[in-house]
Amino acid sequence: MQRLFFDRKGFQGGKSFGLGRIVAIALTLALLLLFQAPSLSQAPELNQLEAQQQQVNQKQQALEAAKQRLRAAQTEAQGNLLDLQQGLQSTDSQLQDNQAQIEQSQRFLKSLEGQLSQAQQRFEQQRSATVARLQVLQRQPKLQGWAGLLQSDSLIQLLERQYQLEKLFERDRAQLNAITTQATEVEARRETIAEQKNGIALLRQKLLSQKATLQQKKQSQETLAQLLKQNEAAIAAAQDQLQKDSASLTLLIQQKLAERAAANVGIPGLGQGPFRLPAVGPMSSDFGWRIHPVLGTERFHGGLDFAIDYDSPVTATAPGVVIYADWYGGYGYAVIIDHGNGITSLYGHNNELRVAEGQIVQAGQLVALSGSTGLSTGPHLHFEVRENGEPVDPKGYL
Fold it and tell me: What does CATH list as the number for 283-396?
């Protein structure tokens, strides 16, 4: 999923949720520029007025169809929002369960730490007792090894002392073995504690990541819903304007008919009628102010658009150094080339880049394959020339 976001160019986005539907709707809005209601003083010919009236009617029908598509897109967006909200609720529920598991594990860890502390205390007590016993034996020479045995008064006494020494040594060995076993248990408990802590941390990290992803998708979907709402308002305003234009044309046609009838005028007869290009194809949009084909609002178009198909060659307009080659918001995958003296060229909405930042290119060298990435209504090349970072009309350089 690509993110939707805003930057200095307005609403920007990559492959956004439902953008294709907005494109179709907003393209209909762009039809509004094709007609401007004439004033009475202009007094165009009757046949021209009738043709314009027919165009208005067609645009009204197109806007109504766009409105229906917009409503369908809004329904879909609301459905997506509901799904995402349910996903967030499910994740929150899992996080609550996870918190309960964490609290239970913490209690278990606290119990283990208590057992560990007790084991360490027993270890120290047994070690201290063993050391003390050995010190006592060392302070009593009569009980030490063969010396104590040889000082026995009889064979029975000798055997008895030998038996006592063996029992003492066996008990010490048993205690030492117990100490070793306890040390092993302590180490095992340490490992158990570490595994518990790691497991809890990983589970919580996974759930938090899942929640962050869902929140991001929800925010993007809310942005889309807001854009749809704005387009709905734009369509309503466009319909109102077309109705006003239609009414104005009706009055103008009626006036013209009356004038022609009074003058008895017949139907008139028919009248008599530098940088290289970065792509091979017709120019579809000029430099300057226009109705944005996606947003449906007046925006400044800072370059030229060339109507070329997907994966068509895009070439450098002049020699230079690539200073940017990556995704750039509404421009999609874009290339910017520095030609020196503050002059740069930009190539936007590409499907694939064929150069990298820092690369030296020659005029006519392949820099990208065209596409429709970013905020785009279809495959084309958006080409800009800038002077000190400010867009200028590229035709002055071509």
Answer: 2.70.70.10
